[in-house]
């Protein structure tokens, strides 16, 4: 039997080790290359997303302005309501806030508030006729609210914006709750659009009922369904070109209860057939008719009577 010399065995073993080492290095670099390729693909995919997002935000800035008219009046919760609303609006691009105070003159509180709010705004005032002003003890439905203020806002747009300007009009009460998605939807309006308003009309929601292919086909309401537009003020937007086309369209204190929105929209010569359905064929709620509880000042009044009023320099 032939004996294999020990040095040959060693050589064989060394060769094996070298082959194994080369194999390992090769597979490792191969794996690394694969990994790098995979990562590069992921980076390029993420870059596409970033580019897309940048494009979107640039586009949003280029999109026409939303002109929102907000009537507001002095009460204990006014600054709290305006703060909440303005901090929602800070997230909306290309937005022009027209704030109309129900007052003989602009108040210091609203003037200061607006100058610090960081939004593009126009500050106006128009006092509600005393005959139509709600008293503290009146139920809120007794009189139409925000009539003179919305008309003043409309007049400002008609006198200060060129009729050629592309834009949208939206009425925003100061105590509602708005989802940011709503403003994206408003900016897709061609002529006029509508969507349901949550917690409105004594219902879960009120406004468009059945919608199909981007059209409102019926209304969902329980009260006065014969109204041409049984919809809350927060449930529609219109192209501002309609304001220049129908210069008389606006609001009136003589309008019967529940007809303010119908009066305005029919004044713009709109019917249900013109209303573009937004908010996922009107199945999403993007605005709520919330109402702020009146502040109770019983203890404050007591302290005033006792001659110990709170610091008058602290604005609430
Ligand atoms: N408003 C007003 N003067 C008033 C009462 C209300 O300018 O005397 C404004 C109020 O700030 C809000 C809008 O009109 O922006 C609608 O009023 P409110 O929210 O009280 O009405 P409701 O929610 O009961 O419909
Ligand atoms: Mn309200």
From TrEMBL:
Ribosomal protein as UniProt keyword: no
Active-site feature positions: 261 (proton donor/acceptor)
GO biological-process terms attached to the record: carbohydrate metabolic process; chondroitin sulfate proteoglycan biosynthetic process; glycosaminoglycan biosynthetic process
Gene3D superfamilies named in the record: Spore Coat Polysaccharide Biosynthesis Protein SpsA, Chain A
Subcellular location: Golgi apparatus membrane; Membrane
Pathway: Protein modification; protein glycosylation
Keyword Ion transport: no
Enzyme class: transferase
Annotated signal peptide: none
Cellular component terms (Gene Ontology): Golgi membrane
Residues noted as binding Mn(2+) in the record, renumbered to the chain: 175
Cofactors named for this entry: Mn(2+)
Binding site for UDP-alpha-D-glucuronate: 71-73, 102, 145, 150, 173-175, 289-291
CDD domains linked: GlcAT-I
InterPro entries linked: Glyco_trans_43, Nucleotide-diphossugar_trans
Record family assignment: Belongs to the glycosyltransferase 43 family.
Subunit comment: Homodimer; disulfide-linked. Interacts with PXYLP1; the interaction increases the 2-phosphoxylose phosphatase activity of PXYLP1 during completion of linkage region formation in a B3GAT3-mediated manner.
Protein name: Galactosylgalactosylxylosylprotein 3-beta-glucuronosyltransferase
UniProt gene name: B3gat3
């Amino acid at each position: 039997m032939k004996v294999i010399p020990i040095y040959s065995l060693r050589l064989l073993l060394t060769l094996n080790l070298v082959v194994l080492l080369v194999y390992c290095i090769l597979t490792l670099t191969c794996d690394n290359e694969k990994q790098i390729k995979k990562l590069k693909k992921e980076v390029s995919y993420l870059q596409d997303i970033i580019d897309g997002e940048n494009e979107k935000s640039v586009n949003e800035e280029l999109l026409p302005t939303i002109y929102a008219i907000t009537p507001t009046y002095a009460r204990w919760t006014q600054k709290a309501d305006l703060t909440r609303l303005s901090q929602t609006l800070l997230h909306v691009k290309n937005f022009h806030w027209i704030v109309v105070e129900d007052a003989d003159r602009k108040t210091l509180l609203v003037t200061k508030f607006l100058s610090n709010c960081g939004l593009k705004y126009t500050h106006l005032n128009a006092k509600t006729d005393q005959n139509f002003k709600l008293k503290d003890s009146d139920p809120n439905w007794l009189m139409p609210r925000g009539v003179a203020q919305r008309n003043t806002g409309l007049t400002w747009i008609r006198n200060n914006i060129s009729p050629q300007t592309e834009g949208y009009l939206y009425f925003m009460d100061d105590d509602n709750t708005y989802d940011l998605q709503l403003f994206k939807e408003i900016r897709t309006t061609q002529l006029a659009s509508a969507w349901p308003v949550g917690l409105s009309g004594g219902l879960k929601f009120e406004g468009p009922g059945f919608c199909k292919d981007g059209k409102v086909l019926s209304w969902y309401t329980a009260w006065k369904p014969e109204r041409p537009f049984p919809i809350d003020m927060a449930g529609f937007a219109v192209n501002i070109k309609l304001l220049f086309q129908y210069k008389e369209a606006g609001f009136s204190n003589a309008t019967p209860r529940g007809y303010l929105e119908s009066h305005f929209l029919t004044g713009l010569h709109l019917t249900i057939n013109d209303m573009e359905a937004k908010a996922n064929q009107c199945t999403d709620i993007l605005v709520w008719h919330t109402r702020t509880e009146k502040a109770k000042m019983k203890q404050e009044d007591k302290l005033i009577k006792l001659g110990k009023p709170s610091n008058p320099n602290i604005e609430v």
